[in-house]
Amino acid sequence: MPTKTLRIPTADGQADAFAAFPDHSERHPGVLMYADGFGIRPVLREMARELAGHGYYVLVPNSFYRHGPAPLFELPEYIGEQVRPAVFAQLMPLIEAHTAERVLSDADAYLRFLTSQPEVGAGPVAVTGYCIGGLYAMRTAAARPDQVAAVAAFHGPVGVDGPDLFSKLTAQVHLGHAEGDMTPEALGELNQALDAAGVGYTSEIYPGTIHGFTMSDTDAFSASGLKRHWDRLLPLLDRTLANS
């Protein structure tokens, strides 16, 4: 699986990024993948390669490039309960500094770069994201309805911006919530807001999961949750990007 380390021109500099794509000369649909807060690291590169193996050009930007290239600080190989507080102490200022305005400015740059790559076909793209990256994915899809045909967010705070964001969505949506993050009552309220906005979506709690369940380098990992994620994500992309 070919991979590249790239630099994406943005309004505020250059974002470093990782890309994976199939090993043949055809053009492929593009997918913008937002990492969780821990950023680009081996597990994210592996997920990008796996998705690329299904026929997609996958671009993973460093959302926090304004503070330096990834990794911004040294991460342990395994992010367990003992190290998590120290990691979050370093991470939270970066997340707080990455305002909605910055997310949307960067999204324009990422999508412009993605769709200009010679390996990427014409047509709509998809956006997916994990944890805080799920919120970034939803904001990107809402801001660029002309370009984004599908958006998927996993264990992400997707309701933070409220129904105003949902009303701008034209993409097909899948939301995979951690059981530890979302009560059935909260899920019902979220889904009612999506219904009211006329969004085409699936939104469900993944059984037996806690926040971060897709990430195999953390103690939140759930093998069944990750499998369910692929079982939902791949058909969504196939339906919406098949003609790209």
TrEMBL record:
Regions that span the bilayer: none
Domain Dienelactone hydrolase, chain residue ranges per copy: 16-239
A GO molecular-function descriptor: hydrolase activity
SUPFAM superfamilies in the record: alpha/beta-Hydrolases
Keyword match Hydrolase: yes
Entry keyword set: Hydrolase
Cleavable signal peptide: none
Record-linked InterPro entries: AB_hydrolase_fold (IPR029058), Dienelactn_hydro (IPR002925), Dienelactone_hydrolase-like (IPR051049)
EC class name: hydrolase
This enzyme's EC code(s): 3.1.-.-
Entry keyword rRNA processing: no
PANTHER family: CARBOXYMETHYLENEBUTENOLIDASE HOMOLOG, CARBOXYMETHYLENEBUTENOLIDASE-RELATED
This protein's name: Dienelactone hydrolase family protein
Source species of the chain: Streptomyces olivaceoviridis (Streptomyces corchorusii)
Organism taxonomic ancestry: Bacteria, Bacillati, Actinomycetota, Actinomycetes, Kitasatosporales
